[in-house]
Specification:
Helices cover 66% and strands 6% of the residues. With 196 residues, the protein is mostly helical.
Length: 196
């Protein structure tokens, strides 16, 4: 009887240690995630300060490191730098690449920047439908200033032909041609079909 009571007490005592250890591991993981995000934010701020001081090469290195790690703000910053030639020559292909990477992570400024390229025809063929779709996406991601652009483009597009398709983190822009059979296309197929 004493042996059984001793085993029960010993079991309860040991299980309390495992509960404390599990609780500490969750707290440790949460703390590590917070520290990691603080580190990312600190590095991004450092890169932004370097950029503001016209130290573009140093800023680029940090933005690129963060972008490769999946930071959406850094991906957008890279796209913006390529679009405006801060990383050397103007490079619209790389700008679009990094904007799209950031859009995959719901970065509203990247959607807005990409919309602006299509609206103005900078580095791409001017396409008001795609511009409208990306401004809509920017608004959906929480960038209220995109609403003004949507109003400006309102008379230039047939909104019923534009769809934004989201499946988890995957986003596709679909634009149907009212004169043809309705079909879903990703942006690249749409541009190829329309000779862009």
């Amino acid at each position: 009887m004493k042996k059984n009571i001793f085993l029960i007490v010993l079991t309860l005592f040991l299980s309390s240690f495992s509960l404390v250890a599990c609780g500490n591991s969750k707290n440790t993981a949460k703390q590590e995630a917070n520290n990691s995000q603080q580190n990312v934010n600190s590095l991004f701020e450092k890169a932004q300060n370097l950029f503001d001081q016209d130290k573009y090469e140093d800023a680029y290195k940090i933005f690129k490191q963060l972008a490769d790690q999946g930071d959406a703000k850094a991906q957008n910053a890279l796209g913006n730098g390529y679009q405006h030639g801060f990383w050397g020559n103007v490079d619209f292909d790389n700008a679009i690449y990094w904007y799209n990477k950031a859009i995959e992570k719901n970065e509203p400024h990247a959607a807005y920047n990409l919309a602006s390229l299509y609206e103005k025809g900078n580095g791409v063929k001017q396409d008001f439908d795609l511009a409208y779709a990306y401004y809509t996406l920017a608004k959906e991601f929480g960038l209220d200033v995109a609403q003004k652009k949507l109003l400006e483009l309102d008379s230039k597009v047939v909104k019923e032909n534009i769809r934004i398709l989201k499946n988890g983190d995957n986003i596709q822009i679909a634009i149907d041609d009212p004169s043809s059979k309705w079909e879903i296309m990703d942006e690249e197929d749409y541009l190829k079909k329309n000779g862009r």
